[in-house]
Design a protein that fits this description.
It is a single chain. The protein is an all-alpha fold and about 170 residues long. The chain has six helices and no strands. The chain has a single domain, classed as Arp2/3 complex 21 kDa subunit ARPC3, CATH 1.10.1760. α1 runs antiparallel to α2 and α4 (about 80-100) packs antiparallel against α5. The longest helix is centred in the last third of the chain and has 32 residues, at about 140-170. The radius of gyration is 16 Å and the shape is globular.
C-alpha cells in the first residue's frame, strides 16, 4: 500500500513538472507588450504554488527544480539556469514559509513569491555582473511582479478548489 501511494505521488509530481515546463515554454513564445527583460507572467511558478497547496512543499520543490533544469536544457542557456535557480529557490522558500500561516490567501503568498523571485534574480545578476546597479531595475520589475503574482494566486485558488474535488473522487 505504501509503495502504491509513493508511486501515485511520483506520477503526480511528474505530471505537475510537465505542466510547469509546458507553461514555461508557451509563455516564452508569447510576446509581451512591455519590452523589458525579466517581465513575464510566471505561470510556471503558479504550478509550484499549486503543488504546495495540494501536496507537500517537498513535492513542490521537486517540481520546481525539475522544471528549472529541463527548461535550462531545452532553452540551451546556462546563465538562464542560474537566474532561474536563484529566483526560484528564494521564491519557493518565501512561499513555503508564508503558505504555512496564510494558506487561505494564496494571492498574497504568490505575490510575495513573485517579488522574491525578482530579488533572487537581481542578486544573481549583481553577482555575475559585479555591480549592484542592477538593483535600480527593482522598482520597475515590482510594478509588473505584483499584479502577475496576485493573478497567479487567484488562478491557483480557483484550480486548487476544483482539483481537490477531482482528487477526492479518484
Amino acid at each position: 500500500m505504501q509503495m502504491q501511494s509513493t508511486l501515485r505521488r511520483n506520477i503526480r509530481c511528474g505530471l505537475y513538472a510537465c505542466m510547469a515546463l509546458t507553461l514555461f515554454l508557451v509563455e516564452a513564445q508569447i510576446p509581451l507588450p512591455i519590452p523589458l527583460p525579466g517581465v513575464k507572467l510566471g505561470l510556471a511558478n503558479a504550478v509550484t504554488l499549486l503543488v504546495m497547496e495540494l501536496d507537500r512543499p517537498r513535492d513542490a520543490l521537486a517540481v520546481l527544480l525539475t522544471r528549472i533544469v529541463l527548461s535550462g536544457l531545452f532553452c540551451g542557456q546556462p546563465v538562464m539556469l542560474l537566474y532561474s535557480l536563484c529566483g526560484g529557490l528564494l521564491s519557493f522558500c518565501g512561499m513555503a514559509l508564508l503558505h504555512r500561516v496564510l494558506s487561505r490567501n494564496l494571492w498574497f503568498v504568490s505575490m510575495v513569491g513573485s517579488i522574491l523571485h525578482i530579488v533572487g534574480q537581481l542578486v544573481m545578476a549583481a553577482h555575475l555582473m559585479g555591480t549592484t546597479l542592477v538593483a535600480n531595475y527593482f522598482p520597475i520589475l515590482v510594478l509588473f511582479a505584483v499584479p502577475a503574482g496576485v493573478f497567479n494566486g487567484w488562478v491557483v485558488t480557483y484550480v486548487a478548489g476544483h482539483a481537490r474535488k477531482l482528487l477526492s473522487n479518484g
